[in-house]
Design goal:
Blueprint lengths: L3 H6 L9 E5 L2 E6 L2 E7 L2 E12 L8 E10 L4 E10 L4 E10 L5 E9 L3 E3 L1 E9 H4 L3 E5 L5 E5 L10 E4 L1 E7 L2 E8 L3 E5 L7 E6 L8 E3 L4 E12 L8 H4 L1 E6 L4 E2 L2 E5 L7 H9 L4 E7 L5 H15 L2 E8 L3 H9 L8 E8 L7 H14 L4 E5 L5 H5 L9 E6 L8 H7 L3 H8 L6 E6 L14 H4 L14 H17 L3 E8 L3 E3 L21 H9 L5 E3 L1 E3 L5 E8 L2 E8 L5 E5 L5 E6 L4 H6 L1 H6 L3 E3 L7 E5 L4 E7 L4
Parallel strand pairs: 20-35, 22-23, 22-29, 23-24, 24-25, 25-26, 26-27, 27-28, 28-29, 29-30
Antiparallel strand pairs: 1-2, 2-3, 3-4, 4-10, 5-6, 6-7, 7-8, 8-19, 9-18, 10-17, 11-12, 11-14, 13-16, 14-15, 15-19, 16-17, 20-32, 21-31, 31-33, 33-34, 34-39, 35-38, 36-37, 36-39
Length: 644
């Protein structure tokens, strides 16, 4: 039997309990040493104030809190703690103090001491600004010399830092009030984190124009302070509980085409039982990377061809060239493959994060001749930032491709769910360059560290690989996948590819138990909950999506699909608390719920879960369907209709 925490989010450790604090008119959550969701009434002022130590590979050193004291009053607070940040190279201790005053002022002070010699890329404060409240708003920047400039928070994703050389920043939070951030101890600058599909702008210490990494020697100290204050008339009522405890889903009148959906290939042998499950999920294509830097690329490609034929799927080829592209392509074109099997070919380079123009000029024409019906594309094997900073020439290709992972900067549950809201922004921006955007692959963890300059400690010394996340096998994984897929569909992605076929980074475990049983708790034969997202969505292949809007997109998301005379509304709870949801559906629906109570059936008796009729739910007198979603649950509500 699986413990509740394993079912919900794949780990045995309990989630941290957030503490709600007040500083005059401001409310916020205190969690694990940091302040999150700082709000003035219903208006989010800041997403997060935190501090971090980043090593030369940009890995964040884990932090342990000691000697924490919290003095909480009705409209103020005073927190002190010691924290130790340590990984295989980093070892630093912070003395921390956070003060919230009745007038709405918040001051966060940190005093750090290196406990060993180590190199750091960054050590100190980062502040996250929410996108919806800030985008387009003018920000007054005060520089270290006292001069000021005014610039807006970017609406489109800024490829480079929109704000530089900051001592203080001020921006409006209402018609007659502003927020002011004041920094001491370093110079700050701001980046648009949507480049990495983080749903925030980040103002961080130590400009990237300075040389890094920097050697800290034992005993070296770092002192920084951040102060948030409000100016103007800011008296504003707090939201009542009745305003925030229910989520309303609304529908648009338009309909959207669905993208084709594929899976990544995996080196494991696909057994008969796995083949059956994957075929039932009705994917469109199988993604395989042919990296000419790897001597065994022939075997990787041939296995993927065999797997695609076995599963009845098209092939999404990703050709990653070295410096002898003509020779490598010549060798590849000698491989026996039916050209009609190939759906798309993405041209990438091992020597550039974004496809170079010279490589496209060299190989595009012979690839088109060999695969006349395949779409040819360019882009990157890593984050959107690569193509935003260096967009490949797209005149001679058919699409742009990039990858998505929500964990470029943080790994906690809240941040991962928040970051699904940034994914559609990347598609919308990419569609300014080409209407055909391929997102491939989408994974919970990055598959590799594109910024590493040496061995990545996170992947070499832990038993479980850097690219594996235990939430893959949990209800959390299904909820995150639904929110991700909804955003990419509604933004207009043409093709999306998720995860792998089998194993700890797949959608089913396969016929062998987890290779990391103490960290990734999955049994042989297990169907991961996120499998069901694809099975239901692909049941509506060649149908339409009806755009939905959630009144609380950090709590509940929804995807509505329609095909012929049937429709489905897929609702998912993005939190570890029960949620109540309403939707304007006037028909009786049959409802299947993927939650803690159905977990074992969905994971180990999949055909029984698929074939069950589910519960009947009818609209109330207000012509609304009302749903109750347990933590991280997903509901599939189906009905017979020709319109919502």
């Amino acid at each position: 039997m699986y413990a509740t925490s394993l079912i919900q989010y794949g780990q045995s450790e309990p989630l941290p309990e957030p503490l709600i604090l007040r500083a005059g008119p401001l409310t916020m959550q205190y969690e694990h040493g940091f302040l999150r969701y700082i709000r003035l009434g219903n208006h989010e002022v800041l997403r997060l104030i935190y501090h971090a130590v980043r090593d030369p590979n940009w890995a964040t050193a884990p932090m342990v809190i000691e000697d924490e004291t919290i003095d909480q009053q009705a409209d103020s607070f005073h927190i002190r703690y010691t924290s130790v940040c340590q990984n295989e190279t980093v070892h630093l201790r912070w003395q921390c103090e956070i003060i919230g005053e009745p007038d709405g002022t918040i001051q966060f002070n940190i005093d750090g001491e290196a406990l060993a010699d180590f190199q750091r890329n960054r050590a100190g404060f980062c502040i996250l600004h929410p996108i919806p409240e800030c985008a387009g708003q003018p920000c007054t920047l005060t520089h270290p010399d006292g001069s000021q400039t005014v610039a807006p928070f970017p609406e489109g994703i800024s490829p480079h830092q929109p704000f530089l050389n900051i001592r203080e920043m001020q921006w409006p939070v209402s018609d007659d009030s502003s927020a002011v951030l004041w920094f001491v101890g370093d110079v700050f600058e701001t980046e648009d984190q949507r480049n990495w599909t983080d749903a925030s702008y980040k103002t961080y210490c130590t400009p990237l124009s300075r040389a890094f990494p920097v050697l800290l020697q034992t005993g070296d100290t770092i002192q920084q302070s951040v102060e948030l204050r409000l100016v103007g008339s800011f008296a504003q009522p707090l939201p009542s509980e009745s305003e925030t405890d229910k989520t309303a889903i609304t529908f648009d009148s338009e309909t959207l085409s669905l993208p084709v959906i594929g899976l990544g290939a995996n080196p494991e042998v696909l057994t008969d039982s796995v083949v059956h499950l994957l075929k039932e999920a009705r994917f469109h294509h199988l993604r395989v990377e042919v990296n000419f830097q790897h001597p065994d690329w022939h075997g990787t490609f041939r296995k993927a061809v065999n797997d695609a034929v076995l599963l009845g799927l098209k092939l999404e080829l990703v050709l990653i060239f070295n410096q002898l592209a003509n020779y490598e392509l010549y060798s590849f074109l000698k491989e026996p493959v039916d050209p009609s099997l190939v759906y798309s070919i993405t041209i990438l380079s091992n020597f550039a994060k974004s496809t170079p123009a010279t490589l496209l000029h060299e190989v595009t024409s012979p690839i088109r001749q060999a695969f006349p019906d395949a779409r040819i594309g360019a882009g990157t094997n890593v984050f959107f930032v690569a193509v935003n900073r260096q967009t490949p020439p797209l005149e001679t290709v058919d699409f742009l491709s990039y990858a998505i992972s929500p964990q470029a900067h943080a790994v906690d549950n809240l941040t991962l769910m928040e970051n699904t809201t940034a994914q559609p922004d990347t598609v919308r921006d990419a569609r300014h360059w080409t209407p055909n955007v391929h997102v491939s692959p989408v994974t919970l963890r990055p598959r590799f560290n594109p910024d590493a300059t040496g061995n990545d400690a996170d992947s070499t010394n832990n038993q479980m690989p850097f690219s594996t996340d235990p939430r893959q096998m949990s209800l959390f994984g299904a909820a995150w996948t639904l929110a991700s897929l909804k955003g990419l569909i509604q933004a207009g992605a043409h093709s999306v590819t998720y995860y792998e076929t089998v194993g700890e980074e797949g959608i089913v475990q396969g016929d062998f138990p987890s290779a990391y049983p103490n960290q990734f708790v999955a049994e042989a034969g297990m169907v991961f909950p996120l499998y069901w997202i694809f099975r239901f969505v692909n049941d509506f292949r060649e149908g339409k999506a009806i755009p939905t809007t959630s009144s609380q997109p950090f709590k509940v998301e929804a995807l509505c699909l329609q095909k012929d005379d049937k429709a489905v509304l897929i609702l998912t709870n993005l939190t570890d608390e029960p949620q109540t949801v309403s939707a304007p559906i006037t028909r009786t629906v049959r409802m299947r719920t993927l939650d803690e109570s159905s977990f074992m059936k969905a994971c180990f008796s999949p055909e029984s879960f698929w074939e069950e009729l589910g519960k009947s739910l009818s609209p109330d007198n207000e012509e609304q369907l009302r749903f109750s979603l347990p933590p991280y649950a997903t509901v599939f509500a189906e009905w017979e209709t020709r319109a919502v």
